[in-house]
């Protein structure tokens, strides 16, 4: 990586001597050099950026004083780079600003018929409005409410209504190889989560050691909507476990392959389903049957919009965005980001699409002082390899949102470095586990193949808060997260002095 002209020649010479005198190990030379180096913030961060793993890569770094917005350091700060999941900072801030922390999603049950005796003569419509927290138990509750209304038989169809959003299920740049997994789950206005992590549009597949020749497979929720093909083999207890769980592209066949040793630990995977609306309707039918509500022989599952003159039978509201925010940001939930994007488009522009939602995000970023003319936004989660945002724009956002009344929720949602609890440390719970960064760095992570990012806040040695963004693109090393962590250590140990209050 190019050295800044501001680095003293003696310092550069010293760093080169250190690099030549130590073994060329992947996690070695320049990080240690930064720890030993004295001097300005610029000199110390520049020392970290001399790491050989960054050769051929592009790194953008931006550091601002969180109180004044003053730019304290930049390296390629105005270069457009791929933010990976730090894109969720933009999506989350826009959702807080436009929808509000108290916003809730809803799911509704409607009918175009009437009840005669114990029979509902007409169709039942299950209308989804984007709720990513809908669970099987919520469908059970809908069935119980229909039973309380005296309905024991439905002489009509079960109709799934997902028209709150458009019918585009996958964002435009999602890789084909990501689509079978929870990180690439399809987005529908009517969807279902298997547990309270709320990875909507997925089923949990658990593989346990069996007593026969094959493993035992358990699905959560139990559903016939997916088909499991079990190609596994049980092997001796001394053999290694090698289990692969993947859904075939374009259908709901989940293929499980590999070897499971006798007594081996279970494997667990969240697998996306093909067409979430059908998944929900399959589970809703099961809920009705479990409550003793029979469907006539001619009843079937269909998909259409709810008629305007339909009658509301039951409704469920989700938790608030504020309550959902912890799982969204701490666990970097891609589905939540894309749902929020489409919901912003629906509420603000009347269209539940990525185009409309991204337009809302862009307009909101302008309010916070970002230059959207130098940005390209392609999805809400950061899964796209075509999102492009300069590091300086991300620190502008981190500075600008602090004045908002929802900022405490935004800040509290960021993963806390080195904190072992899952819903506090989040994606940073195994990183930066020592002083002065442990518990001191609050930041969103981002990871894609060849891309790694970290952006958030850190408090310096003299109690000043800094906002920072680090994006590393096009690297070939196994990992570069320790380079980001070392920059965070430099910032945590820095003494700002009296910040420039600006004009």
Helicity range? 25-40%
Corresponding CATH architecture of the domain at 57-101 and 323-492:
3-Layer(aba) Sandwich
Low-confidence stretches: 1-31
Give the count of helical stretches.
Answer: 13
Fold-level CATH name of the domain at 57-101 and 323-492: Beta-lactamase
Number of strands: 22
Summed over residues and divided by their number, the pLDDT gives a mean of 92
> How are the strands ordered across the major sheet?
2-1-22-21-20
CATH superfamily of the domain at 57-101 and 323-492: DD-peptidase/beta-lactamase superfamily
Shape: globular
Summarize the main sheet.
5 strands, antiparallel
Under the CATH scheme, which class of the domain at 57-101 and 323-492? Alpha Beta
The assigned structural class equals alpha+beta
Radius of gyration, Cα only, in angstroms? 26 Å
Distance between the termini: 35 Å
DSSP strand content: 25-35%
What would a concise description of this structure say?
The chain has 503 residues and is of the alpha+beta class. Helices cover 28% and strands 25% of the residues.
Question: What would you note in describing this structure?
Answer:
The chain is of the alpha+beta class. The longest helix has 16 residues. Among the domains are: 215 residues, Beta-lactamase; 71 residues, no CATH class. Strand 21 and strand 22 form a beta hairpin. Strands 2-1-22-21-20 form a 5-stranded antiparallel beta sheet, with helices on both faces. The protein has a 5-stranded mixed beta sheet with strand order 17-9-7-4-18. Strands 5-6-8-16 form a 4-stranded mixed beta sheet, with no helix packed on it. Helices cover 28% and strands 25% of the residues. The protein has 13 helices and 22 strands. The two termini are 35 Å apart.
């Amino acid at each position: 990586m190019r050295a800044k002209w501001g680095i003293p020649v003696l310092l550069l010479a010293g760093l080169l001597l250190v690099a030549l005198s130590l073994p060329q190990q992947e996690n070695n030379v320049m990080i240690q050099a930064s720890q030993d180096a004295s001097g300005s913030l610029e000199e110390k961060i520049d020392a970290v950026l001399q790491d050989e793993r960054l050769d051929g890569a592009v790194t953008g770094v931006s550091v601002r004083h969180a109180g004044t917005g003053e730019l304290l350091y930049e390296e390629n700060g105005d270069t457009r780079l791929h933010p990976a999941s730090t894109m969720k900072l933009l999506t989350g801030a826009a959702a807080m600003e436009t929808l509000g922390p108290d916003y809730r999603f809803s799911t509704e049950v409607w009918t175009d018929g009437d009840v005669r005796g114990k029979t509902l003569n007409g169709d039942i419509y299950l209308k989804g409005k984007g709720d990513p927290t809908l669970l099987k138990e919520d469908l059970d509750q809908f069935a119980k409410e229909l039973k309380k209304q005296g309905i024991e038989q439905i002489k009509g169809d079960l109709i799934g209504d997902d028209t709150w959003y458009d019918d585009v299920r996958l964002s435009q740049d999602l890789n084909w190889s990501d689509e079978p997994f929870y990180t690439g789950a399809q987005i529908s206005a009517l969807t279902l989560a298997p547990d309270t992590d709320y990875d909507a549009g997925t089923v949990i597949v658990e593989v346990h050691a069996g007593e026969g020749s094959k493993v035992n497979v358990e699905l959560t929720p139990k559903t016939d909507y997916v088909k499991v093909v079990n190609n596994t083999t049980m092997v001796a207890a001394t053999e290694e476990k090698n289990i692969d769980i993947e859904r075939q592209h374009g259908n709901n066949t989940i293929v499980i392959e590999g070897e499971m040793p006798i007594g081996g630990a279970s494997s667990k995977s969240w697998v996306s389903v093909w067409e979430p609306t059908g998944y929900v309707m399959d589970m809703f039918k099961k809920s009705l049957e479990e409550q003793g509500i029979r469907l006539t022989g001619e009843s079937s599952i269909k998909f259409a919009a709810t008629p305007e003159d339909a009658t509301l039978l039951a409704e469920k509201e989700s938790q608030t965005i504020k309550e959902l925010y912890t799982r969204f940001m701490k666990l970097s939930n891609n589905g939540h980001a894309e749902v929020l994007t489409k919901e912003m488009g629906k509420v603000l522009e009347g269209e539940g699409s990525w185009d409309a939602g991204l337009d809302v995000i862009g307009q909101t970023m302008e309010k916070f002082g970002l230059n959207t003319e130098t940005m390209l936004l392609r999805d809400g989660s950061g899964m796209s390899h075509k999102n492009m945002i300069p590091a300086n724009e991300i620190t502008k956002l981190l500075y600008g949102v602090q004045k908002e009344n929802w900022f405490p929720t935004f800040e509290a949602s960021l993963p806390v470095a080195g904190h072992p609890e899952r819903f506090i440390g989040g994606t940073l719970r195994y990183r930066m586990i020592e002083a002065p960064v442990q518990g001191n760095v609050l930041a969103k992570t981002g990871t894609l193949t060849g891309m790694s990012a970290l952006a958030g806040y850190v408090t310096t040695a003299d109690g000043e808060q800094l906002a920072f963004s680090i994006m590393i693109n096009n690297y070939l090393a196994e990992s570069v997260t320790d380079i980001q962590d070392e920059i965070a250590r430099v910032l945590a140990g820095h003494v700002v002095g009296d910040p420039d209050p600006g004009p």
